[in-house]
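Q: Sequence in, structure out?
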Amino acid sequence: MLHKITVQILTLIIVITLGIFAIGALLTGPAPSAVGTLSADFPVKSIQIPGTNGSVVHGWLSYGKPGGSVVLLVHSMRSNRLEMLSRARFLRNQGYNVLSIDLHAHGETTGERITFGLQESESVTTSVAFLRNTFPHERIGAIGVSLGAAAIVLAKQGLKLDAVILESLHPTIEEAVDNRLKLHFGSYGSVLLPVMLSQLSFYLDTSMDKLSPINRINDLNSPILFISGTDDAHTTQSETERLYAAARTPKELWIVPGARHFNMHSYAGKEYEQRITAFLSDYLRRIDDKSQPID
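A: Exactly. Output:
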């Protein structure tokens, strides 16, 4: 009888251990997808940008007006550049050149694992370097959503961007994981947090401090607009306010009433466009060159 109980306990331990490792593998598993082509009403150039360690960043480049500056668009986790398409259309109509990319291990950009900003930031660095080479006389801005925002902040090299918009960005990886565990398992989800963090550290071979944007936000020497929703349970309003407080000036904060952790452009519509237009115009457009929208 005692032997049987011992076997059952050992079996349970093995099952739990395998389950934990399976969850870690699932969390960091890549999110490849075929992006496809766009209709003729929004012409883009498909590009492939050679990066570090043989990586290649895939994206779309849409040309605006000469002197209209350029904006890099960076999508959220387990998504691809299609998520940013409505923003790309809107910005291109404002005269901006727009580059939309697939992050490391997302869309058509290859990668063995999603790394919660660690290697995704290299995709951003590679893309910014490409834009500086392609548009040497233009000012450069970036819009990042969730993981995309983290990738901008966590970039190891100084990006020296002229304007940055960070949407739905978590301050720490611990809070990001904890919030999602609570959404799936209620208040008991926090019990699993140490296990989940240890799994991420194991699979990514890095400390969690290196994945927390609030530790790097003060290094981002660019004007920043933070955007978050009052009803976002993935990244709460108070978490966004902490990031805002830790950032350098100039900075702005827009808390969107009723918004959750989803596409702010789709949700806020015209108000989103007005606020983004005003912010980017202040920092990307010369005073004597407030470019008019493209017909």
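DSSP finds nine helices and ten strands in the chain.
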